[in-house]
From TrEMBL:
Organism: Neogemmobacter tilapiae
Protein name: Sugar ABC transporter permease
ABC transmembrane type-1 domain mapped to chain residues: 97-310
Localization per Swiss-Prot or TrEMBL: Cell membrane
Keywords tagged on the record: Cell membrane, Membrane, Transmembrane, Transmembrane helix, Transport
One GO-annotated biological process of the protein: transmembrane transport
Principal localisation: membrane
Gene3D superfamilies, sorted: MetI-like
Gene Ontology CC terms: plasma membrane
Family to which the UniProt record says this protein belongs: Belongs to the binding-protein-dependent transport system permease family.
Bilayer topology: Multi-pass membrane protein
Domain of life: Bacteria
Transmembrane regions: 42-64, 100-122, 134-154, 183-208, 229-254, 289-313
Amino acid sequence: MADTGISSSSGARGAPGSVATQATLPIARKPSRLFRNLASKIALVPMILTVLVIFVGCTIWTVVHSFTSSKLLPKLDFVGLAQYERLWGNDRWMVSIKNLAVYGTCSMIFSLVIGFTLAALLDRKIRFENTFRTIILYPFALSFIVTGLVWQWILNPDFGIEKVVRDLGFESFVFDPLHSDQFVIYGILIAGLWQGTGLVMCLMLAGIRGIDEDIWKASRIEGIPVWKTYVQIIIPMIRPVIVTSVVLIASGIVKVYDLVVAQTSGGPGTSSQMPALYVMDRMFKDQNLAQGFAASTMMLVAVAIILIPWAYLEFGGKKSRG
């Protein structure tokens, strides 16, 4: 009997899956955080180097040379804030800042409103939705130069909108914004909205289509009107999509250049000047690199003033609340 007990216990110790056997198995160590997803991190190395060398490096180089007297070629001949004093005393730069403020404000508001309205209309499952979506998005596939030239023809009083309306019998109709000092910026705005609104519409439509169907069922049961559902419920729920749209629109506003060159070349006079056009003219027409660098730096500062508080509220605020 004693032998039987011994053999039984030893068999239990040696049985697969027993506690003793599991205790002797080596425990696999998890890789450190540095080596997790190593292939993905290696794939990011070229992009990280590009950002550090090209974007960050060139930005620092530009800021440094904005404090010099560089003309045709860059040179480290520091003159302090002289280029910035000259910049803010230049009437053309002040006109470009005013135009950017008007164009940017109108473009941001109208792009979001029109884009969301079109997305809401397409979300109602209308007939030929794919056709309408393609037509509205198609201008985004065109370059800004092509868009500018097309709208230069459309707004031309000799064979554009004004000519068509006058041929219909309205002889007193006048619509020639590109040759008016006061309204030229709105002619450029029309072309910009025509090209960029389609992308905003598609982003908004994707966000709306991602809303759970139960939300719509609940709103119908509660008797909430459709427009109020969109305004009070859907818009807050697609906030990340709206933020993405705002960032894309803002990036296009700051660097607007092609439309102005194609439509007006900054005219009539200097009434449609933009900061990007000012930079290019100073650097390549006037061969004044330092003045162009100073203007570029001010554009960078303007972007930073907008993005840094937004990034803090979007990411830092969440972290502190967590």
